[in-house]
Amino acid sequence: MTGKPGTGKTALIKEALARTKVKGSGFYTEEIRTGGIRQGFRIVTLDGQEAILAHVGISSPYQVSKYRVDTGSLNRVGVSALRRALKESYLIVIDEIGKMELLSPQFREAVTQAINSGKKVLGTIMVNPHPFADEIKRHPEVETLLVTRDNRTEVMKKVLNWLAEGVN
């Protein structure tokens, strides 16, 4: 899935996972807010691990917008979750393939392995052009759904039907 920030892509993934019997592994990202102001993002694995992906208050050589990106946490928690998913799960969840995550070569490698694994991959990907993200979007096994506030219900139906395919 792709779409502008705030269209509910992560919420759609969480809801789809809650409404299906398919057991997934991987991670999603969520905002870190203080007093209503976004301060950063955390990675949350589907088996309950958490780490800070990016924050205004951390030190890192990597920066996207006002956020410093902790690629070490991404690799330790997010990439490890994807590697476990490749070994153990029918469904791999990657939320999201975005500017911050793409700073990590290990993340890009894990995404490529997931896409080429023959397993189902449910994820979100940045809407803006980026060489790696564009390559993923063009992959013959990838269908990219644009999520808007107006088509969320329709996208949910498509995702749930796709998740149900091939499940006994």
Name a few traits of the molecule.
globular, Rossmann fold, about 170 residues, about 35% helix, alpha/beta, seven-stranded mixed β-sheet
Q: Could you describe the 3D structure shown?
A:
- Helices cover 36% and strands 27% of the residues.
- It has 168 residues and is an alpha/beta fold.
- The protein has a 7-stranded mixed beta sheet, with helices on both faces.
- The mean pLDDT is 95.
Fraction of residues in H or I helices = 25-40%
**Adjacency order of strands in the biggest sheet:** 4-5-3-2-1-6-7
Q: Beta-sheet strand percentage?
A: 25-35%
| Count of helical stretches | 5
Quick description:
The chain is of the alpha/beta class. It is built from five helices and seven strands, in the order αβββββαβαβαα. β2 and β3 form a beta hairpin.
Task: Give a topology summary.
Elements: H1 9-19, E1 24-34, E2 37-45, E3 50-55, E4 62-64, E5 67-69, H2 71-88, E6 91-97, H3 105-115, E7 120-125, H4 131-138, H5 152-164
Parallel strand pairs: 1-6, 6-7
Antiparallel strand pairs: 1-2, 2-3, 3-5, 4-5
Helix pairs in contact: 2-3
